[in-house]
Amino acid sequence: MEFSFDVDALLPERITVLDQHLRPPARRPGTTTPARVDLQQQIMTIVDELGKASAKAQHLPAPITSASRMQSNRHVMYVLKDTSARPAGKGAVIGFLKVGYKKLFVLDDREAHNEVEPLCILDFYIHESLQRHGHGRELFHYMLQKERVEPHQLAIDRPSQKLLKFLNKHYNLETTVPQVRGFKG
Ligand code: COA
């Protein structure tokens, strides 16, 4: 996913972690620094465009990830950029993973309600042209380390077939207990 501005300069690392402040990361020494407000606008554009692309990929009626939603929630977004060498390019974004803690009433296998507050996978998207190249796994692995959680501790609302296969393949996860209401959105 390409943008009119220089993604490579804006996001110096392969994976950028964004929280509700949507702070532009520190730039590499020697890179010209546009006004901070412009940089934040660029970050917001990336978040909005990723949110739209993810909603489209999942056939959702509206994006569940946007800059304004990020600013009003305590979610964390991991953004993966393309680091393949492309001379004179402005860089590109490959995808993202958004997580956050949510209070949930979970039905267990005896149909009892339990209040829990797990880390939830809230949105996850890899650009169509780059799916099944290991990028999703790279992002997921990075997130697990940063958040210090094990895959089986995560909650996911209505995972797509692709995500179910992904979790099964990489983390051997498959047993789920269907829940009454979701938390997406
Ligand atoms: N069909 C079936 N399984 C798929 C798939 C597809 N089109 N794309 C990915 N997978 C699963 C498979 O298990 C695959 O292994 P395989 O190729 O050996 O069958 C594995 O994921 C590949 O892992 P990886 O390359 O690390 O995943 P990825 O970079 O494709 O990222 C997703 C995984 C789910 C984020 C990505 O496919 C995606 O963006 N899908 C569309 C949006 C979506 O469904 N998001 C989840 C929201 S609940």
TrEMBL record:
<dbReference type="GO" id="GO:0005925">
    <property type="term" value="C:focal adhesion"/>
</dbReference>
<keyword id="KW-0007">Acetylation</keyword>
<feature type="binding site">
    <location>
        <begin position="160"/>
        <end position="169"/>
    </location>
    <ligand>
        <name>acetyl-CoA</name>
    </ligand>
</feature>
<keyword id="KW-0966">Cell projection</keyword>
<keyword id="KW-0963">Cytoplasm</keyword>
<keyword id="KW-0206">Cytoskeleton</keyword>
<dbReference type="Pfam" id="PF05301">
    <property type="entry name" value="Acetyltransf_16"/>
</dbReference>
<comment type="subunit">
    <text>Component of the BBSome complex. Interacts with AP2 alpha-adaptins, including AP2A2, but not with AP1 gamma-adaptin (AP1G1/AP1G2); this interaction is required for efficient alpha-tubulin acetylation, hence clathrin-coated pits are sites of microtubule acetylation.</text>
</comment>
<feature type="modified residue" description="N6-acetyllysine; by autocatalysis">
    <location>
        <position position="56"/>
    </location>
</feature>
<comment type="function">
    <text>Specifically acetylates 'Lys-40' in alpha-tubulin on the lumenal side of microtubules. Promotes microtubule destabilization and accelerates microtubule dynamics; this activity may be independent of acetylation activity. Acetylates alpha-tubulin with a slow enzymatic rate, due to a catalytic site that is not optimized for acetyl transfer. Enters the microtubule through each end and diffuses quickly throughout the lumen of microtubules.</text>
</comment>
<feature type="binding site">
    <location>
        <begin position="124"/>
        <end position="137"/>
    </location>
    <ligand>
        <name>acetyl-CoA</name>
    </ligand>
</feature>
<dbReference type="GO" id="GO:0005819">
    <property type="term" value="C:spindle"/>
</dbReference>
<dbReference type="InterPro" id="IPR038746">
    <property type="entry name" value="Atat"/>
</dbReference>
<keyword id="KW-0808">Transferase</keyword>
<keyword id="KW-0965">Cell junction</keyword>
<feature type="modified residue" description="N6-acetyllysine; by autocatalysis">
    <location>
        <position position="146"/>
    </location>
</feature>
<dbReference type="GO" id="GO:0030424">
    <property type="term" value="C:axon"/>
</dbReference>
<dbReference type="GO" id="GO:0019799">
    <property type="term" value="F:tubulin N-acetyltransferase activity"/>
</dbReference>
<keyword id="KW-0012">Acyltransferase</keyword>
<dbReference type="GO" id="GO:0005874">
    <property type="term" value="C:microtubule"/>
</dbReference>
<dbReference type="InterPro" id="IPR007965">
    <property type="entry name" value="GNAT_ATAT"/>
</dbReference>
<comment type="similarity">
    <text>Belongs to the acetyltransferase ATAT1 family.</text>
</comment>
<dbReference type="GO" id="GO:0048666">
    <property type="term" value="P:neuron development"/>
</dbReference>
<dbReference type="GO" id="GO:0005905">
    <property type="term" value="C:clathrin-coated pit"/>
</dbReference>
<keyword id="KW-0472">Membrane</keyword>
<dbReference type="GO" id="GO:0070507">
    <property type="term" value="P:regulation of microtubule cytoskeleton organization"/>
</dbReference>
<dbReference type="GO" id="GO:0005737">
    <property type="term" value="C:cytoplasm"/>
</dbReference>
<protein>
    <recommendedName>
        <fullName>Alpha-tubulin N-acetyltransferase 1</fullName>
        <ecNumber>2.3.1.108</ecNumber>
    </recommendedName>
</protein>
<feature type="domain" description="N-acetyltransferase">
    <location>
        <begin position="1"/>
        <end position="185"/>
    </location>
</feature>
<keyword id="KW-0168">Coated pit</keyword>
<feature type="site" description="Crucial for catalytic activity">
    <location>
        <position position="58"/>
    </location>
</feature>
